[in-house]
Amino acid sequence: xxxxxxxxxxxxxxxxxxxxxxxxxxxxxxxxxxxxxxxxxxxxxxxxxxxxxxxxxxxxxxxxxxxxxxxxxxxxxxxxxxxxxxxxxxxxxxxxxxxxxxxxxxxxxxxxxxxxxxxxxxxxxxxxxxxxxxxxxxxxxxxxxxxxxxxxxxxxxxxxxxxxxxxxxxxxxxxxxxxxxxxxxxxxxxxxxxxxxxxxxxxxxxxxxxxxxxxxxxxxxxxxxxxxxxxxxxxxxxxxxxxxxxxxxxxxxxxxxxxxxxxxxxxxxxxxxxxxxxxxxxxxxxxxxxxxxxxxxxxxxxxxxxxxxxxxxxxxxxxxxxxxxxxxxxxxxxxxxxxxxxxxxxxxxxxxxxxxxxxxxxxxxxx
Length: 367
Ligand SMILES: NC(=O)c1ccc[n+]([C@@H]2O[C@H](COP(=O)([O-])OP(=O)(O)OC[C@H]3O[C@@H](n4cnc5c(N)ncnc54)[C@H](OP(=O)(O)O)[C@@H]3O)[C@@H](O)[C@H]2O)c1
Fold this sequence. Notes:
Elements: E1 8-12, H1 17-29, E2 33-38, H2 46-56, E3 67-71, H3 83-92, E4 95-98, H4 109-133, E5 138-142, E6 153-156, H5 170-187, E7 192-197, E8 199-201, H6 216-223, E9 229-231, E10 240-242, H7 243-254, E11 263-266, H8 274-284, E12 292-294, H9 306-315, H10 320-323, E13 325-328, H11 331-337, H12 349-361
Parallel strand pairs: 1-2, 1-4, 2-3, 4-5, 5-7, 6-13, 7-11, 8-10, 9-12
Helix pairs in contact: 1-7, 4-5
């Protein structure tokens, strides 16, 4: 569907779960030209990494034509780009998508702040330069629905950032500080748009996902019987959102001028409950290890065996997602998606089944 003249985009975070699918979708549905910022990984150059990903999806022929890759690190001033590279981006790029982040929920305070808050600060510095002296028209920032903090009962509004967050981990707090910087820039005239996905999981129809991260390792510990007691309640829900919705919705919203200066919750309005997950486990995986649901106030980690205690400590930053009472306003998202053919996602029993089936078929979860 080629419905607007080709644009030139600058994108960080391409090698990540969202970034990869995001770039693929743009390449397959538009004629846009892309500059991708990629960091070196051990002995693999930015170029090696890009080639591997593009080869896997059969789009390698676009490298060097529609797609240009640049080595850089979001924590460095100017992302560590060479002056001539900055000059080239400044003179060409119309849209800047800052997707890169440290998403490990157990990341250290120092690393989360350096990459998430510091990286966003560096992105904004570049964006101001491109806006004032170049061709930049839009800045898009991927925040998270959990900027309010997963440890509170709260209805998060789209066009505000709660002044009293209750963060469960340094990922959340560093993304909160990062979004604050984007909102400040927005107030000072940066034509920015903020996307806040909840917990991104596999494709809505196939369950497919390139990396089993965020919530998947948590499920794996229980599926493999490494942990057997879960501090939550059957009626608690968890807000997951299919990756294809996040990508299609953000791209549809990015197309509208009206989305400048706004924030969009990319979430489900009807999150599944722990009870539904347990029902699915019993119906589809009857021989999988038993899971005992324990009300959080009665849960005593010290009563666990030594190994379970160690594992549980690592899980601490995840627990907010099982016990949160957050709801998310979706008025901006609903309005922006009207007439685009993209609808807020269904995350019912069948969707959970599709997700677990994909993870099981890939050998990630035990049957
Ligand atoms: N996944 C979710 O559930 C979720 C939910 C809400 C919001 N989000 C937001 O969506 C965005 C993408 O998430 P994701 O799940 O795709 O994350 P991901 O899979 O962990 O990927 C993170 C990306 O950021 C890059 N990156 C990290 N540090 C960098 C640095 N110092 N310099 C350059 N690049 C760096 C990584 O590059 P390397 O490959 O080199 O590490 C990778 O490309 C993030 O901003 C995240 O906060 C994600």
